[in-house]
Amino acid sequence: MIVRPDYLEIRGLTVTFDGFVAVDHVDLTVFQQDLRFLIGPNGAGKTTIIDALTGLVPATGYARYGATDLLGRKPHQIARLGIGRTFQTASVFTELTVLQNLDIAAGAGRSPLSLLRARRGVPPQVAEALETIGLSRASGQLAGSLSHGQKQWLEIGMLLVQNAKVMLLDEPVAGMSADEREQTGALLKSIATDRTVIIVEHDMDFLRAWADSVTVLHGGKVLSEGSVADVQADPKVQEVYLGSGHTAQVPAQAAEPVAHDAGPSTGEQHVLVTEGIR
Ligand SMILES: Nc1ncnc2c1ncn2[C@@H]1O[C@H](COP(=O)(O)OP(=O)(O)OP(=O)(O)O)[C@@H](O)[C@H]1O
Ligand SMILES: [Mg+2]
Protein backbone atom coordinates (compact mmCIF):
# COMPACT_ATOMS: atom_id res chain seq x y z
CA MET A 1 0.00 0.00 0.00
CA ILE A 2 1.31 3.43 -0.87
CA VAL A 3 1.07 5.85 2.03
CA ARG A 4 0.83 9.41 0.79
CA PRO A 5 2.64 11.85 3.07
CA ASP A 6 0.60 14.75 4.42
CA TYR A 7 1.14 18.06 2.73
CA LEU A 8 0.10 21.68 2.72
CA GLU A 9 -1.05 22.93 -0.64
CA ILE A 10 -1.36 26.65 -1.26
CA ARG A 11 -2.66 28.03 -4.53
CA GLY A 12 -3.07 31.63 -5.62
CA LEU A 13 -2.72 32.93 -2.08
CA THR A 14 -3.24 36.69 -2.18
CA VAL A 15 -3.34 39.23 0.63
CA THR A 16 -4.15 42.87 0.02
CA PHE A 17 -3.86 45.73 2.53
CA ASP A 18 -5.78 48.80 1.36
CA GLY A 19 -4.97 48.09 -2.27
CA PHE A 20 -1.35 47.11 -1.56
CA VAL A 21 -0.72 43.51 -2.61
CA ALA A 22 1.52 42.07 0.12
CA VAL A 23 1.14 38.43 -1.03
CA ASP A 24 0.57 38.00 -4.73
CA HIS A 25 -0.82 34.70 -6.05
CA VAL A 26 1.60 32.49 -4.14
CA ASP A 27 1.65 28.78 -4.92
CA LEU A 28 3.42 26.60 -2.39
CA THR A 29 3.32 22.88 -1.74
CA VAL A 30 5.15 21.53 1.28
CA PHE A 31 5.30 17.85 2.16
CA GLN A 32 5.75 16.30 5.54
CA GLN A 33 9.43 15.53 6.21
CA ASP A 34 10.60 18.26 3.84
CA LEU A 35 12.08 20.98 6.06
CA ARG A 36 11.10 23.99 3.96
CA PHE A 37 12.71 27.38 4.41
CA LEU A 38 10.87 30.49 3.28
CA ILE A 39 13.27 33.36 2.71
CA GLY A 40 13.22 36.78 1.12
CA PRO A 41 14.16 40.38 1.84
CA ASN A 42 12.36 42.40 4.52
CA GLY A 43 8.77 43.07 3.47
CA ALA A 44 8.70 40.17 0.98
CA GLY A 45 5.47 38.88 2.54
CA LYS A 46 6.78 35.92 4.56
CA THR A 47 5.04 36.75 7.83
CA THR A 48 1.89 37.76 5.97
CA ILE A 49 1.71 34.28 4.42
CA ILE A 50 1.81 32.76 7.91
CA ASP A 51 -0.77 35.30 9.11
CA ALA A 52 -3.05 34.35 6.20
CA LEU A 53 -2.67 30.60 6.85
CA THR A 54 -3.52 31.06 10.52
CA GLY A 55 -6.56 33.29 10.01
CA LEU A 56 -5.03 36.55 11.24
CA VAL A 57 -5.46 38.38 7.94
CA PRO A 58 -8.06 37.78 5.22
CA ALA A 59 -6.75 36.16 2.05
CA THR A 60 -8.02 34.81 -1.25
CA GLY A 61 -6.95 31.68 -3.11
CA TYR A 62 -6.85 28.42 -1.22
CA ALA A 63 -4.67 26.68 1.30
CA ARG A 64 -5.47 23.05 1.92
CA TYR A 65 -4.19 20.69 4.54
CA GLY A 66 -5.82 17.32 4.05
CA ALA A 67 -9.33 17.89 2.76
CA THR A 68 -9.77 21.25 4.49
CA ASP A 69 -9.35 24.76 3.12
CA LEU A 70 -7.83 26.88 5.88
CA LEU A 71 -8.81 30.24 4.43
CA GLY A 72 -11.90 31.99 5.74
CA ARG A 73 -11.69 30.31 9.15
CA LYS A 74 -11.11 31.83 12.56
CA PRO A 75 -7.63 31.48 14.16
CA HIS A 76 -8.85 29.08 16.88
CA GLN A 77 -10.55 26.86 14.27
CA ILE A 78 -7.33 26.72 12.27
CA ALA A 79 -5.33 25.87 15.39
CA ARG A 80 -7.75 23.00 16.05
CA LEU A 81 -7.14 21.70 12.55
CA GLY A 82 -3.53 21.17 13.62
CA ILE A 83 -1.96 24.28 12.13
CA GLY A 84 0.43 25.93 14.61
CA ARG A 85 2.65 28.97 14.34
CA THR A 86 5.23 30.91 16.30
CA PHE A 87 5.78 34.64 16.15
CA GLN A 88 8.88 36.71 15.37
CA THR A 89 8.83 37.68 19.04
CA ALA A 90 8.34 34.72 21.38
CA SER A 91 4.92 34.80 23.01
CA VAL A 92 5.04 32.64 26.12
CA PHE A 93 3.44 33.45 29.48
CA THR A 94 6.49 34.85 31.25
CA GLU A 95 4.92 34.81 34.74
CA LEU A 96 4.13 31.11 34.53
CA THR A 97 6.47 28.16 34.68
CA VAL A 98 7.56 26.16 31.66
CA LEU A 99 5.29 23.32 32.78
CA GLN A 100 2.31 25.64 33.27
CA ASN A 101 2.79 27.09 29.79
CA LEU A 102 2.76 23.61 28.31
CA ASP A 103 -0.17 22.55 30.43
CA ILE A 104 -2.26 25.49 29.25
CA ALA A 105 -1.35 24.79 25.64
CA ALA A 106 -2.23 21.12 26.09
CA GLY A 107 -5.54 22.15 27.65
CA ALA A 108 -6.48 24.27 24.66
CA GLY A 109 -7.99 21.26 22.94
CA ARG A 110 -9.61 19.76 26.06
CA SER A 111 -13.15 20.14 27.29
CA PRO A 112 -13.77 22.58 30.19
CA LEU A 113 -14.77 19.57 32.30
CA SER A 114 -11.49 17.76 31.80
CA LEU A 115 -9.61 20.97 32.62
CA LEU A 116 -11.41 21.16 35.98
CA ARG A 117 -10.55 17.58 36.86
CA ALA A 118 -7.69 17.21 39.33
CA ARG A 119 -4.39 16.47 37.59
CA ARG A 120 -2.12 13.71 38.75
CA GLY A 121 1.47 14.35 37.75
CA VAL A 122 2.63 15.57 34.37
CA PRO A 123 0.50 14.39 31.44
CA PRO A 124 2.48 12.08 29.13
CA GLN A 125 2.31 14.37 26.10
CA VAL A 126 3.63 17.27 28.20
CA ALA A 127 6.48 15.15 29.57
CA GLU A 128 7.30 14.04 26.04
CA ALA A 129 7.29 17.62 24.75
CA LEU A 130 9.56 18.72 27.63
CA GLU A 131 11.99 16.00 26.65
CA THR A 132 11.84 16.87 22.93
CA ILE A 133 12.49 20.57 23.49
CA GLY A 134 15.21 19.83 26.06
CA LEU A 135 13.52 21.68 28.94
CA SER A 136 12.72 18.79 31.30
CA ARG A 137 15.08 20.12 33.93
CA ALA A 138 13.75 23.66 33.54
CA SER A 139 10.08 22.66 33.86
CA GLY A 140 9.61 24.47 37.19
CA GLN A 141 11.38 27.62 36.04
CA LEU A 142 9.45 30.79 35.15
CA ALA A 143 9.24 31.15 31.39
CA GLY A 144 10.33 34.77 31.75
CA SER A 145 13.69 33.63 33.12
CA LEU A 146 14.49 31.42 30.13
CA SER A 147 17.05 32.41 27.54
CA HIS A 148 15.74 33.69 24.23
CA GLY A 149 16.45 30.33 22.63
CA GLN A 150 14.72 28.40 25.38
CA LYS A 151 11.61 30.59 24.98
CA GLN A 152 11.47 29.68 21.30
CA TRP A 153 11.77 25.99 22.21
CA LEU A 154 8.97 26.40 24.73
CA GLU A 155 6.79 27.90 22.01
CA ILE A 156 7.59 24.93 19.81
CA GLY A 157 6.75 22.64 22.75
CA MET A 158 3.39 24.39 23.09
CA LEU A 159 2.65 23.50 19.47
CA LEU A 160 3.77 19.91 20.07
CA VAL A 161 1.35 19.40 22.97
CA GLN A 162 -1.43 20.83 20.80
CA ASN A 163 -0.64 18.11 18.28
CA ALA A 164 0.12 20.63 15.56
CA LYS A 165 0.73 18.74 12.33
CA VAL A 166 1.74 21.85 10.41
CA MET A 167 4.24 24.19 12.06
CA LEU A 168 4.89 27.66 10.69
CA LEU A 169 7.89 29.16 12.48
CA ASP A 170 8.75 32.82 12.04
CA GLU A 171 12.49 33.45 12.44
CA PRO A 172 12.99 30.87 15.20
CA VAL A 173 16.77 31.27 15.54
CA ALA A 174 16.96 35.07 15.47
CA GLY A 175 18.99 36.19 18.48
CA MET A 176 20.10 32.67 19.42
CA SER A 177 23.63 31.67 20.32
CA ALA A 178 25.53 29.33 17.98
CA ASP A 179 24.90 26.39 20.33
CA GLU A 180 21.21 27.17 20.54
CA ARG A 181 21.00 27.36 16.74
CA GLU A 182 22.60 23.96 16.41
CA GLN A 183 20.18 22.46 18.93
CA THR A 184 17.25 24.17 17.25
CA GLY A 185 18.23 22.77 13.86
CA ALA A 186 18.31 19.24 15.26
CA LEU A 187 14.99 19.84 17.05
CA LEU A 188 13.30 21.08 13.87
CA LYS A 189 14.69 18.21 11.84
CA SER A 190 13.26 15.68 14.27
CA ILE A 191 9.92 17.49 14.47
CA ALA A 192 9.66 17.49 10.68
CA THR A 193 9.89 13.70 10.43
CA ASP A 194 6.15 13.43 10.96
CA ARG A 195 5.02 17.01 10.47
CA THR A 196 4.90 19.66 7.78
CA VAL A 197 7.28 22.45 8.77
CA ILE A 198 7.88 25.85 7.20
CA ILE A 199 10.64 28.01 8.65
CA VAL A 200 10.92 31.70 7.84
CA GLU A 201 14.56 32.69 8.29
CA HIS A 202 17.12 35.31 7.42
CA ASP A 203 20.04 33.33 8.75
CA MET A 204 21.70 31.82 5.71
CA ASP A 205 24.21 29.71 7.64
CA PHE A 206 21.32 28.11 9.47
CA LEU A 207 19.49 27.58 6.20
CA ARG A 208 22.49 25.94 4.53
CA ALA A 209 22.92 23.63 7.51
CA TRP A 210 19.31 22.47 7.82
CA ALA A 211 17.05 23.24 4.85
CA ASP A 212 15.77 20.39 2.69
CA SER A 213 14.21 22.86 0.30
CA VAL A 214 13.84 26.60 -0.08
CA THR A 215 11.23 29.00 -1.42
CA VAL A 216 12.41 32.53 -2.12
CA LEU A 217 9.82 35.27 -1.91
CA HIS A 218 10.19 38.77 -3.30
CA GLY A 219 7.59 41.51 -3.50
CA GLY A 220 4.89 39.07 -2.41
CA LYS A 221 5.65 36.61 -5.23
CA VAL A 222 7.55 33.34 -5.38
CA LEU A 223 10.84 34.18 -7.06
CA SER A 224 12.54 30.80 -6.91
CA GLU A 225 12.18 27.37 -5.37
CA GLY A 226 14.29 24.24 -5.04
CA SER A 227 17.25 22.88 -3.13
CA VAL A 228 19.63 25.27 -1.38
CA ALA A 229 22.07 24.86 -4.27
CA ASP A 230 19.30 25.46 -6.84
CA VAL A 231 18.16 28.75 -5.38
CA GLN A 232 21.69 29.98 -4.71
CA ALA A 233 22.55 29.35 -8.34
CA ASP A 234 19.41 31.12 -9.58
CA PRO A 235 20.38 34.47 -11.18
CA LYS A 236 17.01 35.96 -10.16
CA VAL A 237 17.82 35.25 -6.52
CA GLN A 238 21.31 36.62 -6.84
CA GLU A 239 19.92 39.78 -8.37
CA VAL A 240 17.44 40.33 -5.55
CA TYR A 241 20.02 39.72 -2.84
CA LEU A 242 23.02 41.29 -4.47
CA GLY A 243 21.83 43.56 -7.22
CA SER A 244 22.85 42.52 -10.71
CA GLY A 245 26.55 42.47 -11.49
CA HIS A 246 27.70 42.50 -7.86
CA THR A 247 29.67 39.72 -6.27
CA ALA A 248 30.31 41.17 -2.85
CA GLN A 249 28.25 40.33 0.20
CA VAL A 250 25.78 43.09 0.99
CA PRO A 251 23.04 43.33 3.58
CA ALA A 252 19.68 42.10 2.33
CA GLN A 253 18.06 45.38 3.42
CA ALA A 254 20.20 47.24 0.91
CA ALA A 255 18.33 45.48 -1.88
CA GLU A 256 14.92 46.04 -0.31
CA PRO A 257 14.51 48.90 2.15
CA VAL A 258 12.31 48.22 5.16
CA ALA A 259 9.06 50.03 4.51
CA HIS A 260 7.09 48.91 7.51
CA ASP A 261 7.14 48.15 11.16
CA ALA A 262 6.09 44.55 11.50
CA GLY A 263 7.79 44.03 14.84
CA PRO A 264 11.44 43.49 15.51
CA SER A 265 12.99 41.59 12.66
CA THR A 266 15.92 40.48 14.73
CA GLY A 267 17.13 38.04 12.11
CA GLU A 268 20.65 38.60 10.96
CA GLN A 269 20.47 39.79 7.41
CA HIS A 270 22.94 37.31 5.99
CA VAL A 271 22.78 37.04 2.26
CA LEU A 272 22.77 34.28 -0.21
CA VAL A 273 25.97 34.62 -2.17
CA THR A 274 27.49 32.45 -4.79
CA GLU A 275 30.77 32.10 -2.95
CA GLY A 276 28.75 30.97 0.06
CA ILE A 277 27.63 27.74 -1.61
CA ARG A 278 28.92 24.71 0.19
N1 LIG B 1 -1.33 44.78 8.76
C1 LIG B 1 -0.72 45.35 7.72
N2 LIG B 1 -1.22 46.45 7.13
C2 LIG B 1 -0.62 47.02 6.06
N3 LIG B 1 0.48 46.53 5.47
C3 LIG B 1 1.03 45.43 6.01
C4 LIG B 1 0.47 44.78 7.16
N4 LIG B 1 1.23 43.68 7.45
C5 LIG B 1 2.22 43.68 6.54
N5 LIG B 1 2.10 44.72 5.68
C6 LIG B 1 2.98 45.01 4.53
O1 LIG B 1 3.05 43.82 3.76
C7 LIG B 1 4.40 43.63 3.28
C8 LIG B 1 4.89 42.27 3.71
O2 LIG B 1 5.13 42.31 5.12
P1 LIG B 1 5.65 41.03 5.91
O3 LIG B 1 5.64 41.41 7.35
O4 LIG B 1 4.87 39.85 5.50
O5 LIG B 1 7.13 40.88 5.38
P2 LIG B 1 8.25 39.83 5.81
O6 LIG B 1 8.69 39.14 4.57
O7 LIG B 1 7.78 39.01 6.95
O8 LIG B 1 9.43 40.82 6.28
P3 LIG B 1 10.50 40.69 7.50
O9 LIG B 1 11.62 39.87 6.95
O10 LIG B 1 10.92 42.10 7.73
O11 LIG B 1 9.83 40.08 8.69
C9 LIG B 1 5.20 44.79 3.80
O12 LIG B 1 5.30 45.76 2.80
C10 LIG B 1 4.39 45.31 4.97
O13 LIG B 1 4.58 46.70 5.11
MG1 LIG C 1 8.36 38.83 8.92
From TrEMBL:
Mind telling me which SUPFAM superfamilies this protein's record contains?
Answer: P-loop containing nucleoside triphosphate hydrolases (SSF52540)
Membrane-spanning regions, if any? none
PROSITE patterns per the UniProt record, alphabetical: ABC_TRANSPORTER_2
One example of the protein's molecular function in GO is: ATP hydrolysis activity
The record's Pfam families line, in alphabetical order, gives:
ABC_tran, BCA_ABC_TP_C
The annotated region (Disordered) lies at: 251-278
Write the record's keywords in alphabetical order, separated by commas.
Answer: ATP-binding, Nucleotide-binding, Transport
* CDD domains from the UniProt entry: ABC_Mj1267_LivG_branched
> Where is the signal peptide, in residue numbers?
none
* One cellular component term from this protein's GO annotations in UniProt: plasma membrane
InterPro entries associated with the record: ABC_AA/LPS_Transport, ABC_transporter-like_ATP-bd, ABC_transptr_urea_ATP-bd_UrtD, BCA_ABC_TP_C, P-loop_NTPase
Where the record annotates domain ABC transporter, the positions are: 8-244
Q: NCBIfam families from the xrefs?
A: urea_trans_UrtD
- Official protein name in the record: Putative ABC transporter ATP-binding protein
Per the UniProt record, the source organism is Kineosphaera limosa NBRC 100340
